[in-house]
Amino acid sequence: MTDLRIFILFLFALVAILEPKAQTTARTIEISTLPGVTIKQASQGRIIHRFFDTSPLSPSGKYLALFRLPYENKSPQPGDFGEVILVDIKTGKEGVVATSRGWEMQLGANVQWGETDRDLLFNDVDTITWKAFCVVLDPLTGKSRRLNGTVFMASNDGKKIASYNLTNSRYAQVGYGVIIPEHLIKRNIGPVDDDAIYITQIASGITKRVVTIREIYEKTQPSIAIANPQDYEYYCFQVKWNPQGTRLLTTLQWAPLKGGARQRSVITMRPDGTDIKTAITPEQWGKGGHHINWMPDGEHLSMNLNIDSKPGLELISVKYDGTDLKTVFTPGSGHPSFHPKGFPFIITDAYPNETITKKNGTVPIRLLYTDEGKEENIAEVFVSNTDGEFRIDPHPAWDRSGRYVIFNGFTDNTRSVYIADLKDKIQPKNTRKKDQKIANKN
């Protein structure tokens, strides 16, 4: 064997050792056998849908908007691009409608729908100026335009987008923003006044800064002020519209400059940055919790939170100002969201290490009945035991009608997206009981 061949083999071995690994065992989803539920694979191959708080299904219900990662097991690099994918629900045909350099591993390019099927939103980055921005694309014609701001979440009416600073988002948590060269990013020392929540009008493209981190820190009630804020880095992480477009939520988090545990609180406000309230205090969150979301009434939020000081989390609801906190379902897990029509159903998943899982890299897609206190798993989906930046979260999301649930999985060694039809499952309680009696007789 020549020295050159030995050297090449050594390089391959070194890459194999150093490159982070995705799960290597091919697994498939366990398709639901529940009456009233059918599931099909919508797309496969490094593909994800965005998150659990927006529907990847278009306003008409004809198309799925997804994102294809360029690779699955290494961190995104500035300038690398992924693909925005459109899937025809009826035919299953899919195509690339755009490319984006404004993505990370968990939410891709934050691909989501605006007002109509001709308003597809996603982030991109200009690699000359390294400015991040939102694109509005008509996927049926290819016509697009650039907005001044970025998108984290569009309002339910598709007229406005809200965003926090997505270029330094990775300092809050890796996976949710956009990647630009690190030397261009300024870290936030203390509750700064040059980092903020932004709202962009989609029609005009005009972006407005509505509230700064310093204003949140100083004005929210109850107060979250601490004695030495300049010893911490402060960041907003995620921003979400309520369904009515009348309030926003964000999480504010701060971590010691010298290292140590971060603290977090849930903050809500009006879209003009006024009436700032602390819905969940750092003391409450510090007992354990994750994944805040608006409920359909636009007044309350849901969250996995420990409120009984016992092991495990409860799924709770709380008013936007922190009052009326109560347990909705036990146990809580994963990424919960209430049925968009206000019906007594919650869809959620779980993390592989949570107590309700089989501890084998498979997690349930849970359908919770809040009126009966019971639950059913509509699927068991393999996500691997990969943690951190490269984990695969199902992120189950209702479509706007509340008929479909779309979620991610990991099949044949690659990320995939599934769609579950719950048309015959989402029924009033008396109808469900009647169907169950018929099923029992048969």
Architecture blueprint of SSEs:
Elements: H1 3-18, E1 38-44, E2 47-48, E3 63-68, E4 82-88, E5 94-100, E6 112-113, E7 120-126, E8 131-137, E9 144-146, E10 153-154, E11 160-163, E12 196-201, E13 207-212, H2 213-219, E14 232-241, E15 248-256, E16 263-269, E17 277-280, H3 282-285, E18 289-294, E19 300-305, E20 314-319, E21 326-329, E22 337-338, E23 345-348, E24 362-369, E25 374-382, E26 397-398, E27 404-411, E28 414-421, H4 429-441
Antiparallel strand pairs: 1-28, 2-3, 3-4, 4-5, 6-7, 7-8, 8-9, 10-11, 11-12, 12-13, 14-15, 15-16, 16-17, 18-19, 19-20, 20-21, 22-23, 23-24, 24-25, 26-27, 27-28
- Envelope shape: globular
Number of helices: 4
Radius of gyration from the CA trace? 22 Å
Name the structural class: mainly beta
Number of strands: 28
C-alpha termini separation = 71 Å
Low-confidence stretches: 4-28
The biggest beta sheet is recorded as: 4 strands, antiparallel
The average pLDDT value, as a whole number, equals 91
- Percentage of residues assigned to helices: under 10%
**Proportion of strand residues:** 35-45%
What strand order characterises the main sheet? 1-28-27-26
Determine the oligomeric state from the structure.
single chain
